[in-house]
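From the methods appendix. Each design record in this collection lists the tokenized structure first, followed by the designed amino acid sequence. Records were kept in a plain field format so they could be parsed without special tools. The example shown here is representative of the layout used throughout.

RECORD:
FOLD TOKENS (152 positions):
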């Protein structure tokens, strides 16, 4: 008897937030689905998010290049939270609260970023290009402190 295959996005959410992965899993899946919708709207048309996407079936049926989007985004989020730590507030805290002004427009325009969580979809070297080495390092330290804040 084979054991059921664990959905890779669910697995990533469990690694990041073992006590409460559901909200993070939903967010990652929504973000990936939205990215794929921008690139290939026909692939996402008529898809029931709660049934097909949340179960992981949607991602299994994608052609490899589109699966690559899901893989890259999930790996980016894992790397981001491994670097700065996890705090559920990342999901809702606006970029403007912590990101230097010179980084806001490129993050919003190029990466469609709105919250601190969305920074997980940006490669660290892109922060250096946008902000410079010192400012990028400062941002990482700020995000680490943010992750360590207790959730009230």
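DESIGN:
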């Amino acid at each position: 008897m084979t054991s059921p295959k664990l959905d890779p996005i669910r697995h990533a959410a469990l690694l990041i937030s073992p006590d409460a992965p559901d909200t993070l899993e939903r967010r990652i899946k929504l973000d990936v689905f939205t990215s794929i919708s921008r690139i290939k709207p026909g692939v996402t048309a008529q898809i029931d998010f709660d049934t097909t996407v949340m179960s992981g079936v949607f991602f299994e049926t994608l052609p490899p290049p589109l699966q690559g989007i899901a893989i890259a985004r999930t790996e980016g989020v894992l790397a981001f939270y491994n670097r700065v730590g996890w705090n559920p507030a990342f999901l809702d805290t606006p970029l403007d609260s912590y990101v230097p002004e010179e980084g806001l427009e490129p993050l919003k325009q190029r990466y469609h970023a709105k919250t601190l969580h969305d920074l997980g979809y940006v490669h660290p070297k892109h922060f250096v290009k946008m902000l410079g080495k010192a400012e990028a390092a400062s941002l990482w330290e700020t995000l680490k402190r943010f992750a360590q804040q207790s959730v009230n």
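APPENDIX NOTE: The CA atoms of residues 4 and 36 lie 26 Å apart.
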